Amino acid sequence: MDKKIEKIKKEIKCFHIKTYDDLETFRIKFLGKKKGIITILFKELSKIHIHKRKIFGKIINELKKETQNKINIFHYKYKNDDHKNDKDAKFDPTIPGKSVEIGSRHPLSILNNRIIDLFMKIGFTYVDGPEIEDDWHNFTALNIPIFHPSRDMQDTFFLCKNPDILLRTHTSSVQIRYMKKHKPPFRILSIGKVYRNETISSRSNFMFHQAEGFYIDKKVSFSNLKQTIHYLITSLFGKAKIRFRPSYFPFTEPSAEVDIYCNNEWIEIMGCGMVDPQVFKNVNIDAEIYSGFAFGLGIERLALIIYKMKDIRIYFDNDIRFLKQFKSEF
């Protein structure tokens, strides 16, 4: 056994490796799983007397390590050499470099960011809220109790029946959450997805983005509301004809719809009004001391006018040809 091991040691040492194929031949010859010389030595240990088995086992293990080290050294060498040769062979300095395609913002994101920037300039703070709401924050606290007719206009998707958990129908629920935790005065803007059980068409979708703003302080008037609306519309459209029409919302009183004159017709773009005293009562704000206004507008409808689109569904088709048109900020 001793002579056999010495012969194998000498053979390992003298084995010349000049190519990667030589290295593979060396590996298979000595460490092959079935016929490798060292593998066979391990199998023959069982035939040796138990007292010598431990000694020869240690010697064979060292032989295996020596073999593996030689394999590792040449493997690293040939791997680096091949990589270098491939790199040199493939690199051509005369070929123009590959350009990296720069993505573009979605038109709705551009408009969202623009509105946030406009309101931050006049002292508003941007906040966010959950899309999954409970009935109280989405309806009841906003003066829309159960069986109120206006709930039919905001038919939504209920996730649980008891308690009533739903996908919010407007971002006004953020208004309730914020007023519960903070004391006036404050000016808040929130933009996010809202959901309603509506038929998908060129003008409507079951999901859309809504911007909600509200300002609560002492002596806030309807005149303050009109000034804020004028500031938003003129910032987005430049000079535009604007009209306020009396309307009804359960959470504001008085309420109004806002239209702009565009393409020889009046187009409704948002609703607004003074916050109803009952809403203040629901969040423990004294309506005798504080007053405020709120407004809400759909981003998709606004984007249709600004980008002169006819179908709201194009914003959700993920058509690269369409999205590539919006390379820069609004």
Shape: elongated
Instruction: Compute the CA-based radius of gyration.
Output: 37 Å
CATH superfamily of the largest domain: Bira Bifunctional Protein, Domain 2
Classify the helix fraction into a percent range: 40-55%
Helix/strand class: alpha+beta
Oligomer: single chain
What name does CATH use for the topology of the largest domain? BirA Bifunctional Protein, domain 2
Report the mean per-residue pLDDT as an integer: 84
* Euclidean distance between termini CA atoms: 84 Å
Number of domains: 2
Order of helices and strands: HHHHHEEHEEHEEHEEEHEHH
Order of strands across the widest beta sheet?
Answer: 1-5-6-10-9-8-7
Question: Mind explaining what this structure looks like?
Answer:
This protein is α+β, with helices and mostly antiparallel strands and 330 residues long. It has 2 domains: 2-90; 107-323, BirA Bifunctional Protein, domain 2 (2-Layer Sandwich), CATH 3.30.930. The protein contains 11 helices and 10 strands. The strands form 2 sheets. Strands 1-5-6-10-9-8-7 form a 7-stranded mixed β-sheet, sandwiched between helices. Strand 7 (242-249) and strand 8 (252-262) form a beta hairpin. Helix 2 runs antiparallel to helix 4. The longest helix has 41 residues, at 50-90. It is elongated. The N and C termini lie far apart (84 Å).
